[in-house]
Design goal:
By secondary structure, the chain is α+β, with helices and mostly antiparallel strands. It has 4 helices and 7 strands. It binds coenzyme A.
Length: about 180
Amino acid sequence: MSDFVVRRAEPSDAEALTRLAEEVSGEPEAWLISADGEWRSVGDERRYLKAVRRYAHAAVFVAEREDGAIVGRLSVARDAHPASAHVADIGLMVAQDARRQGVGRALLEAAVSWARPSGVSKLELHVFPWNEPAIKLYENFGFEREGYRKGHYLRAGEMVDAILMAYELSTHGSAE
Ligand SMILES: CC(C)(COP(=O)(O)OP(=O)(O)OC[C@H]1O[C@@H](n2cnc3c(N)ncnc32)[C@H](O)[C@@H]1OP(=O)(O)O)[C@@H](O)C(=O)NCCC(=O)NCCS
């Protein structure tokens, strides 16, 4: 793949990000916890991206290829409860034709770089047990398995399990 850059998402990325989310959600393996192939509309995504730019407690990063294509999206959002405000939750997806080229790792590095000055010391996420590529990425990056959530998500009318994983910033050096 040609080079890519990781940058903060702009409201004008809404259409490309919606398309990416629809494509990834539509893959038969059902990688994403979000919602059975349904994603927010372009308008809702644009509103969300506008709001998130003014909000200190969340961020969306994109990976943009040299040809202008948006090939990855990572969202990170701090816990609302004051007792766990040091924890932020991550959502990640990479376009099928851009996988295994370092995009996921680069987006995770952006999340770590955002977390440090934001006072977030722990990143967490849920991943389906069958999502081996994601589990491998997270484990290689330094995430640890913290728990196993039985019947935690509703998917296609069925309750499915999820693995809870977390990354402690204090146990890793600066990613920059
Ligand atoms: C999981 C996902 C984000 C990985 O993104 P990616 O850009 O392909 O990951 P990277 O290229 O940065 O991979 C970094 C490392 O992770 C591991 N990894 C990633 N994909 C892997 C795979 N299919 N099999 C084994 N290891 C894999 C490898 O160690 C890899 O390093 P290497 O290529 O040098 O061996 C991507 O496959 C994806 O978007 N999948 C669908 C959506 C999804 O599952 N999102 C996560 C939901 S929790």
